[in-house]
Amino acid sequence: MTNKKNTRRALLASLMALLLCFSSLMGTTYAWFTDSVTSANNVIQSGNLDVELYYQVEGQTDWTKVTAETNIFKENALWEPGHTEVVKLKVVNEGTLALKYQLGVKVANEIGSVNAEGNPFKVSDFIKYGVVEGEKTFTRDTAIAAVDATAKKLNEAYNTGTQTLSPKAESIVTMVVYMPTTVGNEANYDKNYPAPVINLGLSLYATQMANEEDSFDKTYDTEATFLNRDAEGAWLINNIDELYYFAANVNSGNDYYGETVKLTADIDLAGYIWTPIGLGDVDGEWIGFNGSFDGQNHTVSNLKVTKSGGWNGLFGLVGRGTSRTTEVISNLTVKNVTIEGTNRMTGGIVGQMYGNIENCHVENVTISAIPNATATGYDNGDKIGGIVGWHGDNGNNHYIKNCTATNVTLKAYRDVGGITGYIGSSSIVENCEVDTVSITVDQETNHYGAKDANAGAIVGRIYKEPVTVQNNTEVNVTIVDPTQAKPWEDHFVATEDITRENMIAKDYVEICHNGGNLTFNNVTFKNGLTIYTNNVNNTGTITLKNCTIYLNNGSGDPDYTSNTQYKSGYGLNLNLANGSDLTFVFENCTFTAAADYAYNGSNSYNVYIGGGYSAESITFTGCTFENSGKHAIGCSAEGDSQYYALTVTGCNFKSWNNDPTITNGAAIRGNLPYGSFAASINISGNTYGDNNNSTQKTVAIDSWTGSWN
Question: What are the pLDDT digits (tens) for 602-616?
Fold first, then answer.
């Protein structure tokens, strides 16, 4: 067969997207399920090759052609655990040529929500489906029984594999969609959040089969495929449907070993959930692409992956082990990538790659990897990269060359890099560029122990030497990595300028200021912060911006020094010697309590200002205060205090006095001395929310005759 003839014969159906809108009835274990067809018709027609798709729901006897106005599921049906619907799909060869086809089902798009228990969820994790061959008639129980053993979650793709149809013949499959009886409130969305939505897509691919006889034999159409070849024999991908077919073909077991696939046009995946090309480890079987993919300088844009587990990207797995070394991805750009729900082996272009990557580029990539639950806790959350998550094998000199990553945001537990999260020994990374890359090491979510972060602008983790990483450039790279070093000792004396950024302090922190300027930006204090002075005439500025300070939970060793300032239940504790001249600036900070904080009848303040209390100034601007047990800001000055300067402007006091055993809390409360004491107070432009159990004024400062609002 000639390539020209193959090109002429190969035909591909248009993609049909069936919009299935799912939501849950808030506060119960019910879910709503409606749908409509959003595509144009699904006719594949050229000459005498003519294919139609029909559907029939349970209880009907007539077959209806699928059109843009078709609703194949019951409109506004009330779904609950055990609710089941049955839809039959019929592919009809209405032409005169024999054909072969593939029918696939996949999630095109999905919007998650938050359930009644406060946890994020996706409906596709709780509704299942199964497909059986032939036209079946079921009761609810027999329908579920027919598919339950092999049913998949709705977010797992289905493909019939290649089927054949003679002229005027038809093929029927019966699809059962149901919500298992074990589903509970975990699938009920909170009314304060949008209802979850799923777009479910059907794909129908068809081409001619070897059936018609010419003057020689019936083999004329033997090589007709769903993809065309060029003169050199490379497979060609011209549009979104062919890219979907290629992915489905790889994921059904065709690894394209030794073959070349070329992209011939830009492809926009907007509106579709992508299933990566190469699923990785599937029950011990490795499913991947083992050929060469040449993007020919084309772009795949708007890639969205929500598949749980690993091996995520445009490609999931390329190559495997040391036996095959021909795999190459080249001359490809992937733009606007969002990958969520993954736990490892993930990149903007490929999750795990044994082979070479050259002249590939990613732009606007966001990947968040969270460790997965295991029988003994959590694991993974690793091997995450802007271009590739895991790259290279040991000893094969695999390389990444002339690649770029721009506007990339990565978050993972460990092994994360702007180009690649992990490389094996003898790997090469050279002449690559990263620009505007943000990497966050998160070892708090699903914590499974302190691990080496292995975070880098170009490469995260080098498995072992020798490797070659050379002639690479990085611009505007931010790595937030609290694991590299403790932000500070739990107690330390500040005598010089100190800056701390993008860190998390898990334990109680105590700072004795003897000198210098202290600057904290985007620092989280999980168990309270105390700043105090022992000396008079202290000068300097202490600045906290974009910080979060939690109430101390009662833990923390109070015996750091003989002059400890530890106070259980306090968030920020300022204990200032009389006569100190420090300037405090708090900007856009949040003062709060952990969700499980236990109020116990003792005073707990978001901020407490005490001691001899004198300072040049203390200013809170744009801050948020919430969940204090008593006062949000409590001030107390001793009788010999010299002056008092407090400014609170543009702040939001969301809630205070949350301890039900305390009724005399205020948003801002002060007890100031009389006599020669000097005060400068400006409280203005703030908003006040719930005072909960309080009988006090919003703002009450004794012995002060000034004004505030």
Answer: 888 999 988 666 788
3-state DSSP assignment of residue 190: coil
Structural contact between residues 359 and 334, judged by C-beta atoms closer than 8 angstroms: no
- How far is the C-alpha of 241 from the C-alpha of 42, rounded, in Å? 12
CA distance 369 to 455: 14
Per the CB < 8 A criterion, the answer to whether 317 and 354 are in contact is: no
Q: Hey, which of 32-41, 226-235, 485-494, 652-661 has the most confident mean pLDDT? A: 652-661
Pick from 248, 247, 338, 331: nearest CA to 301: 338
Return the number of other C-beta atoms located less than 10 Å from residue 192's C-beta: 8
Question: Could you give the dihedral angle defined by the CA atoms of residues 401, 402, 403 and 404, in that order, rounded to the nearest 10 degrees?
Answer: 140
Give the separation between CA 371 and CA 388, rounded to whole angstroms: 18
Residue 299 has, within 13 A of its CA and on its CB side, a CA count of 11
Tell me what percent of the residues of the chain surpass a pLDDT of 90. Answer: 32
Q: Which helix (H) or strand (E) holds 146?
A: helix 140-147
Q: How far apart are CA 413 and CA 365, in angstroms?
A: 18
Backbone phi, psi, residue 202, to 5°: -110, 135
What 8-state DSSP symbol labels residue 56? E
Phi-psi region of 613 (alpha: psi -120 to 50; beta: other; left: phi over 0): left
How many angstroms separate the CA atoms of 198 and 187, rounded? 14
Instruction: Say how far apart CA 491 and CA 508 lie, in whole Å.
Output: 9
C-alpha span between 654 and 627 (Å, rounded): 8
Q: CB count, 10 Å around CB of 4?
A: 11
* pLDDT, tens only, 320-344: 754 455 689 999 999 999 998 899 9
CA angle 612, 613, 615 (to 5 degrees): 135
Would the CA dihedral through 253, 256, 262, 264 be positive or negative?
A: negative
Residue 231: φ, ψ to 5°? -65, -25
SS3 (DSSP) at 351: strand
Structure tokens at 118: 């406060």
Cis bond leading into 466, ω under 30°? yes
Mean pLDDT of 545-568: 73
Residues 6+ apart with CB under 8 A from 36: 18, 19, 69, 70, 71, 75
Give me the phi and psi of 242, to 5 degrees please: -70, -35
Q: How far apart are the first and last CA of the chain?
A: 86
- Indicate the pTM of the whole model: 0.56
